[in-house]
Each structure stands twice: as structure tokens, then as C-alpha cells.
Amino acid sequence: MKKILLLPLTLVYYFVYLVVLCTIQPIQWVAFKVFGDEGLKVSFDYVAYFSLKCNHILGTRFTFENRELIPKNVPIIFVSNHQSLLDTAGIIWYLRKFNCLFVTKKELGKGLPSISYFLRNGKYVLIDRSNPKQAIPKIKSLAEYIEKEKFSAVIFPEGTRSKTGEPLEFAQSGLKILCKYAPSAYVVPITINNSWKVYQYGYFALSLGHHLFFTVHKPFKVSDYTFEELMEKTEKTIVEGIKL
Known about the structure:
By secondary structure, this protein is an alpha/beta fold. It has helices at residues 2-54, 86-94, 115-121, 132-149, 173-181, 227-240; strands at residues 61-65, 76-80, 100-105, 125-127, 152-155, 186-193, 211-216, 220-221.
């Protein structure tokens, strides 16, 4: 019964969100043609912004804590737990000044207005999760790019979203490649809380009135640790911040 009552507002949310995405895509196209990669990046920042704003329809609130801890003018590797689609939008918008580039699944590269267009034309790494070896050279190239440009990479080492908030096993391979080929980078752990609750009943219907928290933790300089030490510290920091 509760899910049925939530359905009308969920449909309103999806309708508004679809209108927003379809409206922004031609703006993205123009921005990309006229201003190149920078125009595409800025236009996609606002896709993330309006994605968050649309969630106000569901009574969702967002708090991003401790951004002042993030080092500036150095390569950054943001490492986070993963609970829902909102995680990406929150990181893109609130950390937009850090030129975040994501490692994400290739399926998102088609079928989604604005989002798929950006993924096909931007600097994100689209990987086939059924073929891990294929991902290695792409992640290596991303690491070399952020090292050179002092940009940021974002990786969710759980590999998929936790549907209950409980942390899943952290895979090491993607982060290991990023650290190896971006040796001057800092790893910045981020803990996300309550994002999964919006989708606790699935995509139909969405849950209402949740407060999402993104918490930035103390950064770790890659060159100060062995990878094993860095992985352990990063995972422990993220997991200890999860509140169920």
C-alpha cells in the first residue's frame, strides 16, 4: 500500500527529470561544438545540478561535508562507497571545481538523454564489467591524464551499488592502476550515507524525505604508503563512516 501511495509523486519526479534531460541535451551539443571539452563539462555539471534539484520533489536533501580537506592543484583520486544513482550527481556538482572524471559502466553510454551524450563525448572511462582486462588500459590512460592535467578521478571500488547501505567488498584493481600511474596524486576517501534509502523500494516507487550526506575524509598521499597500506586505510576510513 505504501508503495502505491508513493507512485504518483514518483511519476511526477521522473517526468520532470526527463524534461530536464531532454532540454539540456541540445544545449550540451551547442556547448561542445562551440567551446569544446570545457563547454561539455560545464553543461554536464548542470545536468548534475538539476538532477539534485529534481530530487527536492521527493523531499530529498543533500549535505556535502569537509570539502576544505581536499588538496588543490594536485591530482586527486576520490574513492567512495556506492549506494545509488544520486552518488554520482552529488560528486559531480559539489566537486565540480576538481574536474572529476569517473570510471563507470559502458551501459550508461546509450539510452539516457544528456547523460549518454556526455559519456560518449567526454573523458569518462566506460568499462565492460564482464571483461575486466579491457578496462586496464583505459584506467591507465585516465591515471596518466589526471597526473598530467592535475584533474581528479572518481572510483567506486565496490563495483556496484549497495541496495541496503551495507558496504560491499572493495575491489583493488582499479584503484591500484590509478595509484601506479598517478604517483603524485592524493587519495581522498568519501563516505556516502542514506543515498540507498531513496531507492529502497526499487525504481517504482521512490522513497521520500531523506537527507543524504557526503563526507570527505582526510586525504592520503599516494607516495607516502605502499598500495596495501593505502587500500587498507582508504577502505577502513570509508566503511567506518557508514551509518546504517
